[in-house]
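Hello forum,

I keep getting stuck at the same step: I have a sequence, I want structure tokens, and every attempt I make locally crashes halfway through. Rather than fight my setup again tonight, could one of you with a working pipeline run this one for me? It's a single chain of 107 residues.
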Amino acid sequence: MQRFAAVIRLRPEKESEYRALHAAAWPGVLAALKRANIGNYSIFLRDGLLFSYFEYTGTDYAADTARIAADPFSREWWTLTEPCQRPLDGVAEGQWWAEAEEVFHLD
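Reply #2:
Ran it on my machine without issues. Output:
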């Protein structure tokens, strides 16, 4: 199992919309994540920053995430969630969420 974390800014004027979307996350989006071997997925909010954490149990992360990107439910979901977000300064070209490095883990 691999752990992944990432950070992005939440646009303050979109917070209630973002919360409402995630309070009623679409079953098709959740199913796509599970098919891609992603579980124990959480998103936290603090001081305008969204912090995501999930666990990946598959063997080909690139292929699994490519399947999510091709999934029609996920693509439509992103048309609603992406306007709520703003990438951090300094992220790589084409990167949306900034990956966070794990510096400690207690097992």
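The domain at 2-99 is CATH 3.30.70.1090 (Alpha-Beta Plaits). If your local run keeps crashing, start a new thread with the error log.
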